[in-house]
Amino acid sequence: MKRRNFLMLLSPALLVGCGFKLRRVEGIPFATLHLEFPSGSAVGERIRKALVSGGFVRLVDLASQSEAVLKIGVETSTKTILSLSGAGRVTEYRLAYRVGYSILTPEGRPWVEPDMIELVRDYTYGDAAFLAKSAEESLLYRDMQDQAAQQILRRLRSLKPQVVTTQQPADRAQ
User: Fold this and answer.
1) Which residue, of 24, 96, 120, 136, is most buried by count of CB atoms within 10 Å of its CB?
2) Looking at residue 44, what is its pLDDT?
3) Residue 82 CB: number of other CB atoms within 10 A?
């Protein structure tokens, strides 16, 4: 009995000792952020959930109240035939997922150039396993959406807050 209790306590201690932590959103250089995305945007929702659960950034409703604005553009998903069998049946598909985003100042000026993330996955297909392949396709799309959200968050973390100054032309003596 003592040995069993010892083993139960040893497992969490080993996890803590090795530095294991759940994935969190840390290191975002802004205290407040305004998030804009189209309704139904899977990437926008994933980013919002990650930022809210991390607790390191406060999401605000108005761009004027934030230090930066993260704007997610339209997401597109495509499915194309990659290869056919000798009998003319589809044997492979290529799935593509694209999402554009921009990071702006509250005034609407870009922090960085707007960017586009494009992810591609190939998978084999067979009519005999239609339901399994449909589930695999959904899983691949979800994986691409998760990866796109993580890439956008990494890009956001890499920014350095800067003081934006507007230079006034020097007064000329007349």
Assistant:
1) 136
2) 95
3) 15
Confidence of residue 14 (pLDDT cuts 50, 70, 90): low
Sign of CA dihedral 60, 65, 69, 71: positive
Query: What single-letter amino acid sits at 160?
Result: K
CA angle 19, 33, 119 (to 5 degrees): 65
Q: Which amino acid is at 134?
A: S
pLDDT of residue 145: 97
Cβ–Cβ under 8 Å, residues 29 and 160: yes
What tens digit of pLDDT does each residue of 76-95 get? 999 999 999 999 899 999 99
What are 6's two structure tokens?
């010892």
Position 128 pLDDT exceeds 90: no
Work out the average pLDDT over 52-75: 90
Using only C-alpha atoms, the chain has a radius of gyration, in whole angstroms, of 23
Q: What is the pTM of this model?
A: 0.75
CA distances from 6 to 10, 16, 159 (A): 6, 16, 46
Distance CA 86, CA 126 (A): 14
Q: Tell me the pairing of strands 90-104 and 68-84.
A: antiparallel
